[in-house]
Each structure stands twice: as structure tokens, then as C-alpha cells.
Write a structure and sequence with these properties.
By secondary structure, the chain is an all-alpha fold. The chain is 75% helix and 0% strand. It is a multi-pass membrane protein.
Length: 113
């Protein structure tokens, strides 16, 4: 169980990086005035993101996506800090912790039946 959870978290981490990088490429193009060529690696990164989510150890896509959401939120705040140079505040951190706790419940919660 712990090994599968660790592998899933690694997949989620890689997926978050791919999704955020892909979305940021479009942000850079449209909001920051960068070249439209930024869209090409953005699309590739978003395709990688979608493929990575299929590697998550989950029986149902909806559950995999729901749990991934918490990881995405935390990773987005890391991106804010490390790439954009804006340190998340305590409310950002508290919100991310709540989301990660929810993701943990979704991933590791006991299932009936």
C-alpha cells in the first residue's frame, strides 16, 4: 500500500509540473506578451500531463482526478514561489494543507464493499 501510494504521489508530482508548465506557457503567450510559439511546448506539456494521470494507481478516473486536485494546488503554490518569486502567505499554506489532507483521504481512505 505504501509503495503504491508513493508511486501515485510521484506521478501526481510529475503531472502537476507538466500541467502547470503547460498552462504557464499559455499565460506567458497571452498575458505576458511572449511569442505564440510558447503554445507549442505548452500543448506538449499538457499532453504529458494527461498521459501521466493515466499512470496513477486508481480504479476510477474521477477518484484519481479528485485526489490529484490537492496535489495540483500545493504544486501551484510552489510554482508561485519558486518560478514567479512570490512567497505564499499563511492562508495559501493553510489552504494547501487542507487540500492535501482531502487528497490523502480520497487516495488512502478505506473503501467499503
Amino acid at each position: 500500500m505504501a509503495r503504491a501510494l508513493g508511486a501515485t504521489l510521484a506521478v501526481y508530482g510529475a503531472a502537476a509540473l507538466a500541467e502547470i508548465a503547460g498552462c504557464f506557457a499559455f499565460w506567458a503567450w497571452i498575458r505576458l506578451g511572449r511569442s505564440a510559439w510558447w503554445a507549442m511546448p505548452g500543448v506538449a506539456s499538457l499532453c504529458l500531463f494527461a498521459w501521466l494521470l493515466t499512470r496513477a494507481d486508481a480504479d476510477f478516473a474521477g477518484r484519481a482526478y479528485a485526489a490529484y486536485g490537492g496535489v495540483y494546488i500545493a504544486a501551484s503554490l510552489l510554482w508561485l514561489w519558486l518560478v514567479e518569486g512570490v512567497r505564499p502567505d499563511r492562508w495559501d499554506a493553510a489552504g494547501a494543507l487542507v487540500c492535501l489532507a482531502g487528497a490523502g483521504l480520497i487516495l488512502a481512505g478505506p473503501r467499503g464493499g
